[in-house]
Amino acid sequence: MTDYDFLLIGAGILGLSTARELQQRYPGSRVCVVEKEQVPAYHQTGHNSGVIHAGVYYTPGSLKARFCFEGNRAIKSFCLEHDIEFDECGKLLVATDSTEVERMQVLIERSKQNGLTIEVLDHNQLAEAEPNISGLSAIRVPSTGIVSYTAICHRLAELIKLDGGEILYGSAVHALTEFENDVIVCCDDRRLSARKLIACGGVMADRLVRLLGGKPDFQIVPFRGDYYRLAAHHNQIIRHLIYPIPDPALPFLGVHLTRMIDGSVTVGPNAVVNFSREGYSRFAFSFTDAIEMFRFPGFRRVVWKNFSAAMQELKKGLWKSSYLKEVQKYSPSVQLDDLQPYPPGIRAQAVSTDGQLVDDFLFHHTGNSLIVCNAPSPAATSCFPIARHIVDQLSDQRISLRSVV
């Protein structure tokens, strides 16, 4: 058996940033990250839109709002320190009708409460800022940016190993046993022991709770987000990121145009229930995952509450022309042939037993373990303050490390 002070499950951006925070908080401690894939950032982190969010949408005072505001600055600082490319291109939230203009007022007030600097553009100012975008007015959020979170993960992995930490790839966790002073982790042919366990397992969060003997009052429901990439001749179609004004009755933000750090422009995502936690094909299906979802009362309730919206999202996922209509509301020059294939992503969404989509961060604690159960967008933007929050919670417990007095 190999002994560690801290063992982390998951080499996505949350797992790696937390491992790095532990090394900095407890110099000389033995830190290990186990990851079932062969590379970091294989799942959610490597399939997101690469946006450095500012925090427009989030309820003032919530963890999402606080972490996003702090994380926006922390991500940029990390990139500057480690020579990782990013672009503070800004974002426009575009209102295309009178209803959306009214909804803008809520976002304007919320932005101010969250400490953001914004500008409100009228029709003429919007046309000047974005000649290829149509709308009545818009909110400009200058601090929004773009980056490769996969590049950040690779750099974090390098720093962890340079500081004496280990990252064990190809190590799927299949058993967890917690004792009074440590946790035993069995992954394939390895048996590991750690004083403290932190799990950032994304779509497997509820299953990790069960492996520890817990009975979660939530379940992870995977939502697939389909993307398209615009044809290369449209790479200069926008200067900012272009987002719609979201409908507060719906749980997701809607289809938007995103400049990527490689110079391309993507369109998406929608939000479709995926019947496989890690199957990225539009028709991926896991019998185990599907049965588990249908047996969970919260899943049936959330589908019933949002049935109409779910059908609309499914329609966009199946018919490109439906997707195009969403884009043409604010970008009429985009045509059907401009929408080219692009890899989808899967969002791990915690759903409560009563059918509510858990909107903020959710953690499961035991004596020696902490499991991140829900890390909604903007989790990638917020990775560094989330990591500090996790380590702060560990520090509130009694920590007796093998390597550090």
Class inferred from helices and paired strands: alpha+beta
Integer average pLDDT: 93
Write the CATH homologous superfamily of the largest domain.
Answer: D-Amino Acid Oxidase, subunit A, domain 2
Oligomeric nature of the chains: single chain
Major sheet, described briefly?
A: 8 strands, mixed
Helix content: 25-40%
Total strands: 20
What is the CA–CA distance across the termini?
A: 22 Å
CATH class of the largest domain: Alpha Beta
CATH architecture of the largest domain: 2-Layer Sandwich
Task: Please work out how many helical segments DSSP would assign.
Answer: 11
Overall outline: globular
Q: Please compute the radius of gyration using only Cα atoms.
A: 21 Å
Strand content: 25-35%
Query: How many domains in all?
Result: 2
Protein described:
The chain is α+β, with helices and mostly antiparallel strands and 405 residues long. It has helices at 13-25, 63-81, 98-113, 123-129, 149-162, 205-211, 287-295, 297-305, 307-318, 320-328, 383-395; strands at 2-9, 31-35, 51-52, 86-87, 91-95, 119-121, 137-141, 145-147, 166-169, 173-178, 183-187, 190-199, 218-230, 241-244, 256-259, 265-268, 272-273, 339-352, 362-365, 369-374. The strands form 4 sheets. Strands 1, 2, 9, 10, 11, 12, 19 and 20 form an 8-stranded mixed sheet that branches. The protein has 2 domains: 2-45 and 150-217 and 360-395, FAD/NAD(P)-binding domain, CATH 3.50.50.60; 91-142 and 219-352, D-Amino Acid Oxidase, subunit A, domain 2 (D-Amino Acid Oxidase, Chain A, domain 2), CATH 3.30.9.10. It is globular, with a radius of gyration of 21 Å. It is built from 11 helices and 20 strands. Helix 1 (13-25) links the parallel strand 1 (2-9) and strand 2.
